[in-house]
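Data follows
____________
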Amino acid sequence: MRQGILLYGPPAAGKDTITAALTALDARYVPFTRLKIGTGKTQGYRMGTPEQLAALEARRDVIYRNDRYSNIYVVDRPGLDQAMEDGRIPVVHLGQMTGMEQVTAFYPAQWARVLLWCSKETTALRSPQRGDTDTAARLAAWDATEADLAAHPRAQWELRVDTDAAAPGEAAEGIDVIVRGSSPRS
């Protein structure tokens, strides 16, 4: 059975940092690079065109699409297929419960669902430190993530991590224990 990790949380909750800690822990963990249609930051994305998006949608290969910050972010079937080749375990970053639901419903795999959380004040501090030029939009997204989470009180999580208190390595080790525990290869 294919495996993956879904990291859910507000902007600057530590998704990139914990993904880096996971990849340092085990080479099977790989960041999933979402397809991005738009402008701005390109690092960590597969940049695409509106035509590529239309072709994916026509083939029903869009697992989840999110429009935010004047861009379109896509979790796509071909991207996940490639990320899971050779037993790799992709780490997918999401900030919307709809994305969590769609990925788990429309892409068969053993998904470890992890809630990463930090205070709004921490997002306000971390956002400019990581080079964001739109911190106000990130804080609005933090509010939206908090409301989204509150609207899904029955959401199931294999792990919850307060990144204001937990070190990235500690969080990565906790996630690794969960993945290994659900793996037929453990």
Observations:
- The first helix runs from residue 15 to 25.
- Residues 3-33+88-182 form a domain with the Rossmann fold fold (CATH 3.40.50.300).
- The CA atoms of residues 67 and 73 lie 6 Å apart.
